Amino acid sequence: MAIKCPKCQFDNPEDTHFCGKCATPLEPSEDIPVTETLETPKEKLTRGTTFAGRYEIIEELGKGGMGRVYRVEDTKLKQEVALKLIRPEIAKDKKTIERFRNELKLARNIRHKNVCGMFDLGETEGAHFITMEYVRGEDLKSFIHRSGQLAVGTAVRIAKQVCEGLSEAHKLGVVHRDLKSNNIMIDKEGNVRIMDFGIARSLEAKGITGTGVMIGTPEYISPEQVEGKETDQRTDIYSLGVILYEMVTGMVPFEGDTPLSVAYKHKHETPHDPRKINTQIPEGLNSLILRCLEKDKEKRYQSAGEIHSELTNIEKGFPTTERFIIEKKPKTVKVGKINFRNFILYGGVITLVIILVLGGIDLLTGGKTVRKWLSFELGPSRKGLAIFPLTVIEGDSYDQAFSDGLVEVVSTKLTQLESFKGLLWVIPTHEVRTAGITSPSEAKQELGIDLVVTGNMRRIDNIIRLSLNLIDANTLLQIGSPLVITDPITNLYTWQEDIFIKLLQMLDIKHQPQMNLIWATGETALPDAYEFYLKGLGFIKEHEKLDKLDKAIGFFERAVEIDPQYALARSGLGKAFWLKYKLTKNSDWFDEAKTNFKLAIQNDERLVPGYISLGMIYRDTGRYEAAISEFQRALQIEPRSYHAYLELGLTYEQVERFVEAEETYKKAIKLRPNYSKIYSYLGYFYYINGRLHEAEKMFSQAMELAPGYINSYYNLGAIYFLRKQYELAEAVLKKSIIIKPNATAYSNLGTIYFYQRRYGNAVDMFEKAVNLEENDYMIWGNLADAYRFTPGYKEKAQDTYEHAIELAKKELSKKSEDAILLSRLASYYAVIKDVENALAKIIKARNLAPNNVPVIMNSIGVFELIGKRDQAIKALLEYIQKSGSMEEIIRDPDLAGLRADPRYQQIIKK
């Protein structure tokens, strides 16, 4: 038998406790024991009638254990109020009515913006009723039900307001005792009101509750209420913990088939860790929730004010326009270091492994006012969007892979909308994951974005429920209503398009018919093939694990077996085989990769990611002209492909077509002027070519756009050092440490001190660095240099160099063509007088990158240390021709002999 919702009239299964559409509490069937199992009055007040001579009924709002609640107009005061009609069987007990009256006298004294005002207890013709303030809005239970889970910032903001209301009530000696998300209202401005103060205690009178019936709602009840013990303000604190848990996870900590089974769990079971359900919950908030839910009330927070203070401290970790915040170092690839001994630089030549990276879209129009940075114009309202991985609720690894794949497709499709010019750009899910970003605040600080899409997915048999939320990364508040879709998996393909369209609606972007071409590019119409493709995408994210990679290959192969023309699945298979080749060095997998990418393009000639991936394969195997050709084809199809320009610029750089490389990077920036990392690419390019002033501008711009992206601080510090601006270099590096203690900043500070001959200070910094990053060969090499020049530490230098060499060799096994790594390794061999290895490594490095300024600088030191002064002088001349900094030559203590050579003096005079 279905239960009809009294609020929205939706038909629900008979064993449902809350409406499946609006989450209103439902009256259960008679054979299920629930809280306050008392009969409902048979007579209902109908719309338009006047009750008690003054209250005109507007609508019924709902019903609960005490009776029905109506929205009414008080015709005497000419205002709307809420009227709760008390059930006759409760009202007939005079002691209970008197208790109500006394409790309401106390509750009426609570005058606070976060507490719903209680007015009076009235009686007419034997019927008793309570009047209270009417709050126009939505109860928190319904809000959570629609959202699935709330953004952390929204949950904290709501909880703080609840704490303020509770603090005021507790100060007056009023304890709620039935605090739950149903009786917390949120008005249209986002203000919170707690309802029903002073009611629950009144029901504790003898005779009102039957045997085995508890006061309080089972899902929110405290352990002491379960036992019938004395309650105080800490009872409300426990219930607040349940509400916080519910807000950030989308579920209450304990559920069961009966109220008694739920109550038993509150008394005896430990709740699941909220962060295992929602990884975006900060650790501090996670601990706060679990402390509120302590079984022993002595171990809980003792006051709502104490919780409010903790929430305020947690909120300080959220971003503001005046504070740098970061909690985790981004997972970026080190590509070398500045061309003196110890400084580490990030940017530029990053190896991208057949992944569609760093896309973006321009969809919105408008925004006439701009500001100009160098030659690039930046719109003031241009918004960045990051798509986060979904939280999978109660799923297995295959559900997780399916979810990851689905979100990857959605984000990648959005990045391909860049041909629609506007004011929105998108960072796809895998870019967020690769950067190690887990919260909107990190995304704001490290990526410079303004909007984040988060959500969760739950799969039950063949039904999938997807909930997506749009979060303002500046305030951490939720924007608008969530997108919730529940559908069988057989409808998945059409469901995907529905997701795109509704996401555009959430972003207030008009859907255009031309976008349909992007939805359809490379796709299949066969649901099974599509599901296998999504799972393949999900498993490929762990491509460093061979077993996960093989699972991805298996799913992609099943997809193309079902639909041999499925271009995206072919492209996915090509990527998986290429990654397997990179892991195993088995050339068979390289051939398979190339074949599948070519088949993908044959199946759909407009598949831009296919051309880009094929170009990356060609570049990584030395076929540079073929790579350039593939990137250019991609740009012919999609002239606004940021990713294609980026890969083309990197390729031009590798073949030393520097003018074309610079212009290509600038084109990428014009497509993504708000994205900080592209400025680092161009800044590194300028640095490599000795154009330090321009490099400084690029790194400064990157830092302004994303103040939490600490790599920009390293790079800017390096440039300041090269320009002898030591105080600025030191200040910017220390600023990065304030944001987050990190090995690179300590190492670079050590380098500053090293070249100022403050060797003891340099040792301190390098030792701090290796404690944070124990597998970084460059930092160990830096520490060895400092030991070598510091009295009392020289005996440690040899062992430290040897350790650096072993770490560098491990790195070289993965990057055998890395010229800078080879030149660094050569310098270590030179210091310990292993002339053969030093010479072999520096010659290979010079052959791989004959015009690379850092490699040339390292070669000067290597030749000098192994006694080949003529080669050192020759390398010095090349270094000067390439605009290398003479400050590095002057500062390097290993080049003292070279500087004394008459030939050096002649070079200086010239």
The CATH level-2 architecture of the domain at 138-315 is identified as Orthogonal Bundle
Radius of gyration computed on alpha carbons: 33 Å
Number of helices: 38
Which sheet architecture does the biggest sheet show?
7 strands, mixed
Beta-sheet strand percentage?
Answer: 5-15%
Mean pLDDT: 80
Helix content: 40-55%
Which stretches are poorly predicted, pLDDT < 50 over at least 5 residues? 28-42, 202-215, 319-342, 347-381
State the CATH topology of the domain at 138-315: Transferase(Phosphotransferase), domain 1
Secondary-structure class: alpha+beta
CATH superfamily of the domain at 138-315: Transferase(Phosphotransferase) domain 1
Distance between the termini: 98 Å
Strand segment tally: 20
Q: Which CATH C-level class of the domain at 138-315 is it?
A: Mainly Alpha
Shape: elongated
Walk me through the structure:
By secondary structure, the protein is α+β, with helices and mostly antiparallel strands. Among the domains are: 138-315, Transferase(Phosphotransferase) domain 1 (Transferase(Phosphotransferase), domain 1, Orthogonal Bundle); 347-521, Rossmann fold (3-Layer(aba) Sandwich), CATH 3.40.50; 816-910, Tetratricopeptide repeat domain (Serine Threonine Protein Phosphatase 5, Tetratricopeptide repeat, Alpha Horseshoe). 51% of the residues lie in helices and 11% in strands. The protein is built from 38 helices and 20 strands. Strands 14, 15, 16, 17, 18, 19 and 20 form a seven-stranded mixed beta sheet that branches. Helix 11 crosses helix 16, helix 18 packs antiparallel against helix 19 and helix 31 (794-814) runs antiparallel to helix 32.
